[in-house]
């Protein structure tokens, strides 16, 4: 069975990324037994100017999107898509426009422990922001998520209090922008095939099958 690695460039305050994660999980389940899939979570900041303490979430989005009506339409669409796959978007619970640099640092440290833990942390961050309305720039929130997902809270507390890996995360974000990523989610398959946006599970499943098929054919050609 061929294995495919997916690098998911995303931000934890991006609703389409939360939706995309759930759709990707459905796609992976669909190809189970046909294709092995390894997922890495890569950082991106949609709103790098957000402060660490956060500013008003709804006001910011109204200004960004050009009006309350447009924002409400977009959020209603997301709620509908979310309900179809088990996500309960509660935008009314979100009060602050959070900076996500520390959240990305936490995801990086989780990835060092293993892909399963990193995936668990990604889910917890999305849920904390979009369903619970937690401030994912708050270090106490991040430490709680770390502990919930099996990381050592004392270690994470010390790391967050330092500048550990800030430069690395910012360099990764800049590298993504340099390669043309200007919106997320952005999925990179085996370092060479890209899919942009929260694609439907069947689209992602077919992409995985196609890439696995090409890898198998290339392997046969080398024999």
Structure report:
- It contains nine helices and six strands; from the N terminus they run E-H-E-E-H-H-E-H-H-H-H-H-E-E-H.
- It starts with a strand and ends with a helix.
- Helix 2 (57-65) packs across helix 3 (68-84) and helix 6 (139-148) runs antiparallel to helix 7 (153-160).
- The chain has 223 residues and is of the alpha+beta class.
- The chain has helices spanning 15-30, 57-65, 68-84, 101-113, 115-130, 139-148, 153-160, 166-178, 201-221, and strands spanning 3-10, 36-43, 55-56, 96-97, 186-189, 193-196.
Per DSSP E runs of 2 or more residues, the count of β-strands stands at: 6
Name the strands of the widest sheet in spatial order. Answer: 2-1-5-6
Derived structural class: alpha+beta
Instruction: Name the assembly state.
Output: single chain
Strand content: 5-15%
Sum up the structure in keywords.
single chain; two-stranded antiparallel sheet; globular
Write the layout of secondary structure elements.
Layout: E1 3-10, H1 15-30, E2 36-43, E3 55-56, H2 57-65, H3 68-84, E4 96-97, H4 101-113, H5 115-130, H6 139-148, H7 153-160, H8 166-178, E5 186-189, E6 193-196, H9 201-221
Parallel strand pairs: 1-2
Antiparallel strand pairs: 1-5, 3-4, 5-6
Helix pairs in contact: 1-9, 2-3, 4-5, 6-7
């Amino acid at each position: 069975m061929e294995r495919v690695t997916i690098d998911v460039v995303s931000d934890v305050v991006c609703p389409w990324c939360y939706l995309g994660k759930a759709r990707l999980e459905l796609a992976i389940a669909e190809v189970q037994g046909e294709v092995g899939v390894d997922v890495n979570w890569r950082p991106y900041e949609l709103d790098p100017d957000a402060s660490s303490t956060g500013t008003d979430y709804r006001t910011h989005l109204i200004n960004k999107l050009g009006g309350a009506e447009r924002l409400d339409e977009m959020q209603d669409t997301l709620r509908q898509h979310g309900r179809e796959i088990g996500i309960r978007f509660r935008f009314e619970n979100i009060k602050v426009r959070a900076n996500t640099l520390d959240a990305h640092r936490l995801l990086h440290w989780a990835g060092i422990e293993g892909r399963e833990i990193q995936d668990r942390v990604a889910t917890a961050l999305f849920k904390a922001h979009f369903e619970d309305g937690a401030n994912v720039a708050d270090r106490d929130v991040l430490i709680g998520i770390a502990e919930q997902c099996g990381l050592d809270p004392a270690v994470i507390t010390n790391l967050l209090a330092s500048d550990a890996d800030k430069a690395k995360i910012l360099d990764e974000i800049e590298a993504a922008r340099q390669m043309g990523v200007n919106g997320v989610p952005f999925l990179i398959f085996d370092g060479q095939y890209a899919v942009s946006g929260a694609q439907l599970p069947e689209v992602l499943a077919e992409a995985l099958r196609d890439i696995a098929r090409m890898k198998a054919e290339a392997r046969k050609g080398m024999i």
